[in-house]
Design brief:
Blueprint: H1 14-37, H2 47-56, H3 58-65, H4 67-130, H5 141-148, H6 164-185, H7 195-207, H8 213-222, H9 225-248, H10 260-277, H11 291-307, H12 310-316, H13 322-337
Length: 338
C-alpha cells in the first residue's frame, strides 16, 4: 500500500486512522451487546461498580487497547514507505540527471561534429579544384564526410577519427582496379602471340553469342585493341565500382548506361578522393598507393585512351556510350554482309 502524496504527515495516512478506529468501533459495539444482553445499568463510579465494569468489559477493553500498538505499527509502516519512496525519488532523480548529462554531452558532440563538417565543406571545394575532379562536386562534401566520419550515436563516440573500415574497403577496390589494369595490359602481341586476339574474342562473345567464325574474324579485324581493353576493364569492375560509390556517397556512373569517358573520369576521381581524404600520419600510409604506382597506373590509362577511338568519339559526341560502341560493331557486321 502506498502513501498518498497529497498528504504530508502520518495523521493523513488512512491506514493509521483505520488501525485506531477499527478496534475502537469493535470494542464499543461489543460493549453495547454486553450491556443489553446482561441487563447492565449505569451507576455512579465506585469500587463495586468499577469491579463489575472491568469484569464484563475485559475483552472490549483489551480490543480497545490494541488500537495503540496497531497505530504504532501503521506509523512505522508509513515511515518505511516514505523512506522507500524517497529512495526511489532520489534514484529517479539521479537517473534523470544522468540522462540529462548524457543528452547534453551528445548535443555537444553533435555541435562539434557539425562544426567539423562545416570546416570540411569549406576545404573540400579546394580539394575538388586542386584534384581536378570531373564528377565529384563540392556539393557532395556532406555525404562524403558522413560516410568517412560517421555521425556519433552517443556522447563517447569519436568525431575526429576516420572510419578505417571504409578507408580499407576503398583501398582494396583501388588495388583491385590496379591489378586488373596491369592484367589486361599484359595482353599484347609483343609479349605473346595471339594474346590480343584472345581479348577481342572475349569481348565479342560478351555481346554476341551466335556469330559465325567468319563474322568473328570480321569484328576482330576491325576492333581497336585499346577500345577492347578499356571496355573489358570497365565491365570487370563495374559491380564493385557501384558498391564503392555507394560506400563513399558519390554518384555511380555505370558502364551500361553512362558515357564511357565519364565512367573512366569518375573512376579516376575515386582514386583522387581516397588520396585526398586520408589523414596524415604513418598509420594511414598503408592505405596509400606509392607515387610510382599511381604514375604507372595513370600512364597506362592515358596510353590506352590516346590510341583508342573512345576518347575521339567522346570529343565528337559527349554521350558516347557502350550502346554506341555495340551499335558500331553491328554496323561492321552489316557492312560485311553486303
Amino acid at each position: 500500500m502506498g502513501v498518498n502524496n497529497k498528504f504530508s504527515g502520518v495523521f493523513c495516512y488512512p491506514v493509521f486512522w483505520f488501525s485506531i478506529i477499527l478496534p475502537m468501533m469493535t470494542a464499543i459495539t461489543l460493549m453495547v451487546f454486553i450491556i443489553f444482553n446482561d441487563n447492565l445499568s449505569p451507576e455512579w463510579p465506585s469500587k463495586d461498580s468499577l469491579g463489575v465494569f472491568l469484569k464484563y468489559m475485559e475483552v472490549p477493553l483489551w480490543i480497545f487497547g490494541s488500537s495503540i500498538p496497531l497505530a504504532t505499527l501503521a506509523a512505522a509502516n508509513y515511515r518505511a514507505i516514505q523512506f522507500q519512496e524517497n529512495l526511489d525519488f532520489q534514484k529517479r532523480n539521479l537517473d534523470f540527471q544522468k540522462i540529462n548529462l548524457e543528452r547534453q554531452e551528445l548535443e555537444h558532440v553533435f555541435d562539434l561534429y557539425h562544426k567539423e563538417l562545416t570546416l570540411f565543406k569549406e576545404q573540400f571545394e579546394a580539394v575538388v579544384h586542386n584534384g581536378k575532379f570531373r564528377h565529384i562536386r563540392p556539393e557532395d562534401a556532406t555525404m562524403i564526410y558522413s560516410r568517412f566520419y560517421p555521425k556519433p550515436k552517443q556522447g563517447g563516440d569519436s568525431i575526429f577519427k576516420i572510419d578505417k573500415i571504409k578507408v580499407e574497403y576503398v583501398f582494396e577496390f583501388i588495388k583491385l582496379v590496379e591489378r586488373q589494369v596491369f592484367l589486361v595490359a599484359k595482353y599484347n602481341e609483343v609479349m605473346k602471340v595471339g594474346s590480343e586476339s584472345k581479348l577481342k574474342i572475349i569481348l565479342i562473345e560478351n555481346f554476341f553469342s551466335n556469330l559465325s567464325q567468319e563474322q568473328k574474324e570480321v569484328l576482330m579485324g576491325e576492333l581497336n585493341i585499346y577500345d577492347v581493353k578499356i571496355i573489358i576493364l570497365l565491365s570487370m569492375i563495374d559491380e564493385q565500382f557501384s558498391l564503392v560509390c555507394n560506400a563513399v556517397g558519390i554518384k555511380h556512373y555505370s558502364i551500361g548506361g553512362s558515357p564511357i569517358m565519364v565512367v573512366i573520369e569518375s573512376l579516376l576521381d575515386v582514386f583522387g578522393l581516397h588520396s585526398s581524404i586520408l589523414p596524415e600520419g604513418d598509420d594511414y600510409n598503408k592505405y596509400r598507393l606509392s607515387q610510382e604506382r599511381r604514375v604507372d597506373f595513370v600512364e597506362v590509362i592515358k596510353h590506352w585512351l590516346i590510341y583508342s577511338s573512345i576518347e575521339r568519339n567522346h570529343n565528337k559526341n559527349k554521350d558516347y556510350s557502350m550502346l554506341d560502341f555495340v551499335s558500331y560493331l553491328k554496323l561492321i557486321l552489316v557492312k560485311a554482309s553486303l
